[in-house]
Write a structure and sequence with these properties.
The complex is a heterodimer of chains A (277) and B (325).
Chain A (H helix, E strand, L loop, with lengths): L2 H38 L5 H5 L12 H31 L5 H15 L2 H13 L7 H26 L2 H9 L4 H12 L1 H17 L2 H4 L19 H9 L4 H32 L1
Chain B lengths: L6 H10 L8 H38 L9 E2 L4 E2 L2 H32 L2 H16 L2 H28 L18 H25 L3 H9 L4 H12 L1 H17 L2 H6 L17 H8 L8 H33 L1
Antiparallel strand pairs in B: 1-2
Classes of the chains: A mainly alpha (277), B mainly alpha (325).
Chain lengths: 277, 325
């Protein structure tokens, strides 16, 4: 075989392998989703949304877990979004080439990929141990720590897309900085910032490890933020590992719900992003 | 950027001739921005301090040998991190070894082969793998992959490769399904999108000129990829792999479901083991407040934090150096 023919053959082989790898990745995604649909869909019914978690065989649902998750994510957002928004703005407006800006950006990137179970341990040490027990507050705080770096990152990226001339024009008119940022820069980047918040919700909704040692989970109905609080991921974790068939089925139902929610949020935010760029 | 004012400079220019409207509110606003920035720094500091403080009693009790001691015995209250540190690194390395060639191939596909209109949808679909929560991977791994491994993958491998010298040690033990290899496999799927996305970003930043000059002298697509694009982005690509490694090191829920949770050390890919994260998740419920076990788990957490901090910091340095420079 001539050298050219051999090089062509190598090129062709690598291309075929690459296509196969990409197909494999798509196949894996389809396989996971298929498994969720096949096992989760039959288990979904009105009882999932209307009933509490009950002992095996009693026909329980996931109502308290869903509500608990919503409450904790809601409070985590209320804490995390303003901090993340402000910190992202700090990086974009004041931290461009400064040492402190670089340090904050570095730390934020580490937090973004830090093992989430350690955030759970951290909040356990900070809020659970000293204040006498597992609580919804602690769970919300742990989720807030997950949310903040996501919001910081997208806010900074989105503010950097806002043309500098827009800011200069506003400054030239004599606007103070707070007005320039809140009325001009934020408004121009609004869609992107909202995307960051959506991504943060998606991330927080599926997190299990940080809740294990903070809000712990609760098999009863409780809206008390000072008591242990149920959440969907924890309920799935408990039920999936149980030997009872109806509990495992409920775990699949919950898994399907979470995945559909998380993927919808992700696709939505990508559509918004694609429109912006 | 150099020719124009940054927000920062414009603000200080404004300060010279400031109208009354911002006299009080502006310093306040800037103060809030700075406080939030510093808050993130303090947050990381607090995490490190809390984990260190929580685990300190265990370190004092068992000494520095806690780091490598392979004893983990809740009954006699003798604890050491050796097995978990080994399991954490072993399973994460398996994940990277599996994910790396896949990422190379998929990045090649997305940047060079896929027709234009297909690139984005396929790229997004692969990114969705990263959005699926870790616990879902755990369930899928536990109910779907573990039985497959036990029935179809492990028995032939044990039979075929087990008797071989040296590498045979990797293929010992009963085909349980759950174990190091399964954990690494699941994590490989989870970190694949992260590595691929950064590979694609780096490869797309290669100047078309140098690629075209290689094409001009007759190189094939693969040769350009291998000899021009990849060497050009090598530093950042190593950083991307480190990010994948860092993610795998701290992965908890997926691993807890499929690694088998044994506190024994074995060189076999099929042996059940445990990672730092899975041990913390599993044993925490049995550790009472103030107990030596809890302190040991916190110390494990501190070790994991140090390991992943080093890997993530290194990854970031490598990635940023290339993309910025």
């Amino acid at each position: 075989m001539s050298s050219l023919a051999r090089r062509r053959a190598t090129d062709y082989t690598v291309k075929v392998i690459s296509v196969a790898f990409a197909a494999l990745a798509l196949l894996l995604l389809a396989w996971i989703l298929w498994t969720l649909v096949v096992r989760g869909l039959p288990a979904i019914g009105p009882h999932v949304f209307t009933r509490m978690t009950l002992p095996p065989g009693a026909g329980g649902g996931l109502l308290n877990a869903i509500v608990g998750s919503l409450i904790q994510i809601g409070i985590a957002l209320a804490i995390g979004t303003p901090i993340g928004l402000m910190c992202g703005t700090f990086l974009a407006e004041h931290g461009k080439n400064t040492q402190i800006g670089n340090a904050v950006r570095f730390v934020n990137d580490v937090l973004l990929s830090a093992p989430s179970i350690l955030i759970g341990l951290f909040v356990y040490q900070l809020l659970v141990m000293p204040f006498g027990g597992f609580s919804g507050w602690a769970g919300a705080a742990a989720l807030a720590v997950i949310i903040i770096p996501v919001v910081v990152r997208t806010t900074e990226d989105m503010l950097n897309l806002v043309p500098i001339g827009l800011r200069e024009a506003a400054f030239a008119l004599g606007a103070p900085q707070w007005k320039v940022v809140t009325l001009i820069t934020w408004r121009a980047a609004r869609a992107g910032i909202v995307t960051g918040v959506l991504l943060a919700i998606a991330r927080a909704a599926g997190e299990t490890a940080p809740l294990l040692f903070t809000s712990l989970g609760n098999n009863g109905w409780s809206l008390d933020m000072n008591a242990p609080m149920a959440s969907l991921p924890i309920a799935i974790y408990q039920y999936a590992a149980s030997p009872f068939e109806d509990w495992v089925a409920l775990a699949w139902a919950g898994a399907l719900l979470i995945t559909v929610g998380v993927l919808t949020l992700n696709i939505l935010s990508r559509l918004v992003l694609a429109k912006m760029k | 950027m150099d020719a124009t004012l940054t927000g920062n400079q414009a603000a200080s220019a404004m300060a010279a001739a400031r109208k009354p409207t911002g006299r009080l509110s502006d310093p306040l606003f800037v103060g809030v921005l700075w406080t939030s920035g510093i808050f993130v720094l303090i947050l990381l500091g607090l995490i490190i301090a809390m984990l260190f403080e929580g685990g300190l009693p265990a370190l004092q009790e068992f000494g520095i040998s806690f780091l490598w001691s392979t004893t983990w015995n809740p009954v006699t209250e003798k604890f050491g991190a050796g097995v978990m540190v080994f399991g954490t690194i072993f399973s994460a390395v398996i994940a990277v070894v599996i994910a790396l060639p896949l990422s190379f191939g998929i990045a090649f596909f997305l940047t060079e082969i896929a027709p234009g209109p297909l690139r984005r949808p396929i790229g997004v679909a692969i990114q969705l793998l990263a959005a699926i929560p870790s616990i879902i991977y755990g369930m899928w791994g536990f109910f779907v992959i573990v039985p497959l491994m036990a029935a179809y993958v492990q028995p032939p491998l044990i039979e075929l490769l087990g008797p071989l010298p040296v590498i045979g040690a990797l293929f010992q033990g009963p085909p349980l399904g759950a174990g190091m290899l399964t954990a690494g496999l699941i994590m490989a799927i989870m970190i694949l999108p992260f590595i691929t996305a950064m590979f694609v970003e780096v490869l797309e930043s290669v100047p078309p000129m140098i690629k075209e000059s290689a094409y001009g002298v007759g190189a094939t697509t693969y040769e350009v990829y291998r000899n021009v694009s990849v060497p050009y982005g090598r530093t950042a690509m190593v950083g991307a792999v480190m990010l994948g490694l860092g993610r795998a090191l701290g992965e908890t829920m997926a691993v807890t479901f499929v690694i088998g949770n044994a506190t024994r050390m074995s060189a076999s890919l099929f042996a059940p083991g445990s990672t730092i994260a899975s041990t913390i998740a599993n044993e925490f419920p049995e550790a009472g407040p103030g107990s030596l076990k809890l302190q040991s788990l916190l110390e494990l957490g501190f070790i994991l934090f140090v390991i992943s901090f080093i890997v993530l910091a290194l990854s970031r340095l490598l990635v940023r150096s290339k993309l910025k420079g």
